[in-house]
Amino acid sequence: MPPGVDYEGSLYHAGYRCIAGVDEAGRGCWAGPVVAAAVVFSPRLLAQPEALDGVDDSKLLTAAARDITYEQIHRLAVGVGVGIVAAPIIDSVGIIQATRTAMIVALLSLPLAADALLIDALSLGALTIYQQPLIKGDSLCLSIAAASVVAKVTRDRLMQAADTCYPGYGFARHKGYGTAAHHSALKVLGPCALHRLSFRPVAALASP
After folding, report:
1. Of 60, 20, 25, residue with least CA distance to 141
2. Which range of residues forms the domain containing residue 81?
3. Which end of the chain is more exposed for a tag (fewer CB within 10 A), N or C?
4. Is 160 inside a domain boundary?
5. Measured between alpha carbons, how far apart are the two ends of the chain, in Å?
6. Residue 183 lies in a domain
7. Is the pLDDT of residue 57 over 80?
8. pLDDT class for 208, splitting at 50, 70, 90?
9. 3-state class (DSSP) for residue 16
10. 155 vs 179: CA distance, rounded Å
11. Within 10 A of 83 (CB to CB), how many other CB atoms are there?
């Protein structure tokens, strides 16, 4: 079953008027940034969610479908924001704090101020506005699913571009995830500037 708009509807009924769905991509990767996105749809659009047919948890969509849906979201949303936190900061503060930072940056990048948040799994203690963390929110909530697509497509494009700057690692194929091919490349080449040295598999291969 595709994600629905029940959570957004409940918040609109409670009086909130600018509800952002928030999600991230790349949290478990060995290389590259963690990317978060925030997406706001108008109440009118959410009252006719068939206009958003095809929007789903990014993990359930093919790369081609994600690209189409990404354009659909940007065309129909009243606000889209993106936050990017690079590998050195992930190493410095840890992946959870880096993910929260990326989410806050995404919210600050919106063209309008959200007054309520629907977030996949995490909460943002640094913010005082209302927020509702949802486990597997990208499969339950349309706004979070849209954010998952924006974050995933944005990050994938960054990693495809990184493949030119750091050839040999296969970033265009695996996007920095811990695949066998990535592991093999790391053993031969060692880590590059995009690698998260605090992640155990990378640290093990970076050791002399």
Report:
1. 20
2. 6-164
3. C
4. yes
5. 49
6. no
7. yes
8. low
9. coil
10. 17
11. 26
Residue 85 lies in a domain: yes
Reference 98, options 38, 25, 39; nearest CA is 25
Token pair for 129: 């506005």
pTM over 0.90: yes
- Per residue in 163-178, pLDDT (tens digit) is 999 999 999 999 999 9
| Domain assignment of residue 107, yes or no | yes
User: Can you tell me which residue has the tokens 């949290």?
Assistant: 27
Q: Over 80: is that where the pLDDT of 162 sits?
A: yes
The H-assigned helical ranges of 77-130 are 87-93, 95-108
Six-digit token string for 11:
């918040």
Does 207 score more than 70 pLDDT? no
Give strand pairing partners of 118: 21, 132
According to the model, what pLDDT value does residue 1 have?
Answer: 85
Element (H, E) at 80: strand 79-85
The one-letter amino acid at 104: I
